[in-house]
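Continuing the series of single-chain predictions for the mutant panel. This is the parent chain; the variants come on the following pages.
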Amino acid sequence: MMEKNIKNYEVGEQVIDNLINELVRKSSSAETENLLCQILTTTVKLGRESGDRGDLKLVNNALKELRYSFKIFSPYRAIKKVIIFGSARSKVKSAEYKMAEEFSRKLSKRNYMVVTGGGPGVMEAGNKGAESGKEFALNIRLPFEQKPNPYIDEKDKIINFKYFFTRKLVFVKETDATALFPGGFGTMDEGFEMITLVQTGKSRPRPIVLMEPKGSNYWAGWMHFVKSQLVKKGYINKDDLSLIHVVKSVDAAIKHIEDFYKVYHSIRYVAGLAVLRLNREISGKTLKLLNKKFKDILISGEITVSPPAVKEIQEGEFLNLPRLAMNFNMRNYGRLYEMIHVINRD
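Parent structure:
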């Protein structure tokens, strides 16, 4: 039976709306029919309202890219993945290339999958180091510089994008950790966007490691700018620096990523509450410490042990995991990261 609230969003012509509903009934599951109906309704509205062929081409290409990407990643959603960003111009003999290759190789041995931008330089090193079948390449079609590197063993794991914005969305949606190596405008763009997304709560919390080989001062210079210009002048909060972690070795980067998910599992916002799913229960001592140390990020009440929320039960989300719930202010995500680190030290 089609959900009644589908009628809240329709084309407004009974014949067309009936055709959409019929197509949805033949094309979706009961869990997805409402959303598919809205997608098709939006498509029809766009076709009727826009006479600009360029508008329709953009939406068409973006939807195709997202559909194909979801198809490729869907079988691997249960496996943790690390996105590697860095310069396409790093030479094979450079220290950062070798570091990225070692990082990818060691991640693979720990059963992580590696995602890169698919091009040369640091991206190539990431694909080169990964074990066969454990890497993806999200390539962007450019008139220069960016051709898929030869180190992706399974060609169906190469996804070619026309648009940066769809590629970036897939980078964030399908990965669990971010590693940034020295790079140019593209690396800075990807890095700042990733930090902005977690700073504003538009992406779920994730470890973000800024990696550089010993002897490099790339991130030291970057951090000097961030602290002297952004923090000092009040453009960001000092605790926003907790969103990132600078490392000089591969092992330190992997430890930071693994430690982030040691006890903390994931987060879900339900009916005004932030629900933190944990890999195991924490001690009463740690819970007391959380309430004492992080009272400032609560709108009201306390951080409490919680059963799954009704929405989680309906959607079957990690029902076997213990939980904490709190009235998080949805603003101080740097402090939320600090709280996650305290939970992981339990």
